[in-house]
Amino acid sequence: MPRLSGVIAAAATPLRDDLSIDHERLVAHCRWLLGDGGCDGVNLLGTTGEATSFSVEQRLAAMRAVAESGLPMERFMVGTGAAALEDAVRLTLAAKAFGFAGALLLPPFYYKGIDGESLAAYVDAVVDRVGAEGLGLYLYHIPQNTGVPWPIEVVAALAGRHPGILAGLKDSSGEIAYSTELAQRVPGIAVFPSSEATLGLAGERGFAGCISATTNVTGPLARTAWHKAGSAEAEAAVAAAGAVRAALSSVTLVAAVKDTLAEIHGDPAWRRTHPPLRLLTEAERRTLGEALARTEYPRLFGR
């Protein structure tokens, strides 16, 4: 099972007028991310990809479209988390069957206050039903959304129970201390913080790269930061990527990423978001445009 590393984009998901997933645009965007977009890999159907707003059938159809597109599946992970165990199993089985290098698993997020052993037992159940062979499982730690964290001691226990299967964890908590401690305590798994700012710390802290919403836009800068680590050029790229990330975060992030992709791709359809998320208002678009104009963004994409 190939291990993912480097700059991974949490890909946005383009929509049709009827709010279904636009497979043609999605495949084209993934191809762009792995080329001119500057990314080493793609995280399909995560938070930025609005995955939990889609049905299991919609998610499976998008996975199939990407898997059958000829894109290099060894460079893809896909979100397979769901509130229902059977849905998570079905999505994770499909991720394995389609050849995705990783399945990114949310905790069971409806019930709160779940004890550590119960969380571990949930993962055990997924692995048991999916089958260990060919499975690369990544845990998704985003407690501000789920209300259910992956405690470090639970991750360590799961790494011991499922060696070679538990491949890593995406840390979207924004707490660098969590990523740092996890990489130290469980060195056999790949730890991915969610910000380009951490790329400059990756070597000393043992991170495998980053998985970020904003690398949909900052990929060329993040590529320099990762692949030229330790150089003055990389240091400048980290700072530049951080400035673009801050600009995108000046308004609602998912809508900001999609609005900016509409400009990059010259395609207004990219602005569509799935309820309950909404498009940016005209005032928010002005705020975003002014913020991006003060960064390296115009130079990156000839704006």
The percent range for helix content is: 40-55%
Overall shape: globular
Output the CATH homologous superfamily. Answer: Aldolase class I
Main beta sheet: 8 strands, parallel
Compute the average pLDDT: 96
| Order of SSEs | EHEHEHEHEHHEHEHEHHHHH
Helical run tally: 13
Total number of strands: 8
Tell me the CATH topology: TIM Barrel
CATH first level: which class?
Alpha Beta
Low-confidence stretches: none
Tally of discrete structural domains: 1
Please compute the radius of gyration using only Cα atoms. Answer: 18 Å
Task: Give your account of this protein's structure.
With 303 residues, this protein is α/β, with parallel strands linked by helices. The chain has one domain (6-227): TIM Barrel (Alpha-Beta Barrel). Helices cover 46% and strands 12% of the residues. It has 13 helices and eight strands. The protein has helices spanning 23-33, 56-67, 85-98, 116-130, 143-146, 152-161, 176-185, 202-205, 215-227, 232-248, 253-265, 282-293, 297-301, and strands at residues 6-10, 41-44, 76-79, 102-105, 137-141, 166-171, 190-193, 209-212. An eight-stranded parallel sheet has the order 7-6-5-4-3-2-1-8. Helix 1 crosses helix 2 and helix 2 (56-67) packs parallel to helix 3 (85-98). The protein is globular. The mean pLDDT is 96.
